[in-house]
């Protein structure tokens, strides 16, 4: 039985979605010059803020905008948050509140001047990357278990990258190094410059696909995979037949101009339908077969 991503990590996307919303709110607040007042949902966000290893997040600031952050913004955010912790953060025990106060104080000491913010940026960005990679691990395990990077997996990787605040380049670099170490190889006839568009499989999975003249891959979300033998030969001759039918279909058009052909009446009656079928067949072949050749 294959291991799916949802099986190994239920509810993970929901938690990441909540973090994404918090990040977006912090970014907007930082762009507007810091907190004018605490947001309505701050009580829901405060625990998430302290679980993050990013000192900028603790003070409701976006570390990516550290060059725009001023001493006054840090001071203003710190005063509002520390007041909230002392007067409203009462549903937790004293130990948890003391820890939150300590974390906030340490973050303020690090960020209260430009030099501190500059040195803290690399630390915060490293934490962002490590947390993004960690959030991606269950999906990597599902890909390895399947033996193939399917189209569905690609979509999940890109969605997870957006939710986990990690770039496509960063997650791709990590992913393909890990897949290569697990024996995955790109199986395309022509390799794409974008590694996400390559069909990555283990040798075992690749040979299983090649052992059948026609192998559908519905979970991959792509067209069928044909080996180099009978499948391609069949469609080669199907294309030739389609071209021949197209020529036959063009005959009645000529009859409208040159009416000397003795069977022109029958060709005008049925030739149009032959032409339509031939054109549809030929267009299908161009689109479908060319797509298969890229796999």
Description:
- This protein is mostly helical and 295 residues long.
- It folds into 3 domains: 5-130, no CATH class; 133-216, no CATH class; 230-294.
- The chain is 68% helix and 1% strand.
- It is built from 12 helices and 2 strands.
- The protein has helices at residues 5-8, 12-31, 42-51, 55-58, 71-87, 94-111, 114-146, 151-163, 168-181, 203-210, 230-257, 264-294, and strands at 185-186, 200-201.
- The chain has a two-stranded antiparallel ribbon with strand order 1-2.
- Helix 5 (71-87) packs antiparallel against helix 6 and helix 7 runs antiparallel to helix 8.
- The chain is elongated and about 80 Å long.
- Mean pLDDT is 76; it is low at 1-8, 213-230 and 257-264.
């Amino acid at each position: 039985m294959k291991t799916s991503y949802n099986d190994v990590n239920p509810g993970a996307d929901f938690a990441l979605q909540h973090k994404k919303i918090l990040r977006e709110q912090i970014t907007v607040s930082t762009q507007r010059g810091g907190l004018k007042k605490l947001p309505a949902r701050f009580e829901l966000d405060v625990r998430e803020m302290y679980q993050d290893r990013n000192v900028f997040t603790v003070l409701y600031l976006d570390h990516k905008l550290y060059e725009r952050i001023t001493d006054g913004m840090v001071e203003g955010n710190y005063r509002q948050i520390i007041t909230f912790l002392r007067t409203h953060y009462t549903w937790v025990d004293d130990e948890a509140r003391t820890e939150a106060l300590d974390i906030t104080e340490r973050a303020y000491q690090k960020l209260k001047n430009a030099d501190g913010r500059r040195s803290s940026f690399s630390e915060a960005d490293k934490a962002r990357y490590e947390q993004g990679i960690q959030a991606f691990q269950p999906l990597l395990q599902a890909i390895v278990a399947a033996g193939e990077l399917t189209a569905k997996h690609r979509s999940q990787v890109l969605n997870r990258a957006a939710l986990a605040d990690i770039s496509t380049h960063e997650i791709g670099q990590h992913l393909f190094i890990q897949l290569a170490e697990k024996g995955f190889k790109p199986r395309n006839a022509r390799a794409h410059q974008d590694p996400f568009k390559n069909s990555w499989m283990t040798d075992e999975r690749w040979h299983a696909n090649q052992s059948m003249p026609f192998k559908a891959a519905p979970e991959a979300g792509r067209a069928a995979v044909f080996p180099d033998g009978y499948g391609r030969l069949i469609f080669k001759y199907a294309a030739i037949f389609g071209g021949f039918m197209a020529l036959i279909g063009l005959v009645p058009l000529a009859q409208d101009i040159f009416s000397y052909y003795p069977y022109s009446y029958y060709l005008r009656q049925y030739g149009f339908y032959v032409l339509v079928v031939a054109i549809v067949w030929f267009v299908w072949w161009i689109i479908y077969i060319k797509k298969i050749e890229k796999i």
